[in-house]
Amino acid sequence: MSDFPLRRRDFVTGSVTAAAAAALAPVSVAQTKPGAPKAAVARLPAKKALFVWGGWPGHEPDKCRDIFVPWLKKEGFEVVVSDNLTPYADAALMGSLDVIVQIWTQGTIEKEQLKGLINAVKVDGVGLAGWHGGLGDSFRTANDYEYMIGGIWVSHPGGKIDYEVNIVDHEDAVTAGLKDFKLHTEQYFMNVNPNMKVLATTTFSGEHDPWIAGSVMPVTWKKVHGKGRVFYTSLGHTADVFNTPEALTMTQRGILWAARSKHEPTPDLVAPVYPRR
For a designed S-S bond to 181, which of 112, 131, 231, 246 qualifies (C-beta 3.0 to 4.6 A apart)? Predict the structure, then answer.
């Protein structure tokens, strides 16, 4: 397995509530007060992650690999890196994992690979995390996969545009201390499962498609699938999106949250109503 250079900062600075800090502490998240040293916190023993990258190259899976694999190692994970889907059919490997991070847009997945991935999450309680089309536009003919993720991409009106991401849950550990922020990238319009915990949304202006004016769309969410946790954010069309501290922080915190699926109870995340801006 190759080592990749670390090219991005770890976490955004900002205020975090005591409850959120306590929730994040077990996964060794940096303190977020300016100038504060990194907290000495308990780590999970022998944490193990599978990072799968590939599919359509336009989403820069190799560059995303270079951001997140070194960071996972820094967080104490043993990381298995794969540029193919073969590991999903390896039951022994899949059962040994704490979290799967996938950046694989479009493509197809074989029956045994799909079965292995879903079984790892649903039955073994392995966490699953990812972003943009690498998790939300994968394996378009695999309905069971889409059901597990909680949403599927359908459009990005206008292509790369200026838009705002609104934090709608300021108490959750993944988004605590973060403020609304703006991006110039694809604004994902998705078909989503309403029964999940939405952490951030975006609102469509209607400039490009007037019939969706005012539509409030989830950007970042948590859910469960069987025993396993699933984290998704629609941000991350290309690797430079993670130069935006809030986008990077949400994604890193979400991965760490998913990685604790086997190690602590997951509260009820069914929350079909989220605020309209």
Answer: 246
Cα separation, 133 vs 60, in Å, equals 11
What is d(CA 78, CA 127) in angstroms, rounded to the nearest whole number? 15
pLDDT digits (tens, 9 = 90+) for 99-136: 999 999 999 999 999 999 999 999 999 999 999 889 98
| pLDDT tens digits, one per residue of 156-186 | 888 888 999 999 999 999 999 999 999 999 8
- Residues 183/220, Cβ–Cβ less than 8 Å: no
* Cβ contact 216:187 at 8 Å: no
SS3 161: strand
Give me the DSSP letters along 94-107: HHT-SEEEEEEEB-
Rounded to whole angstroms, how far apart are CA atoms 98 and 113?
18
pTM score of the predicted model: 0.83
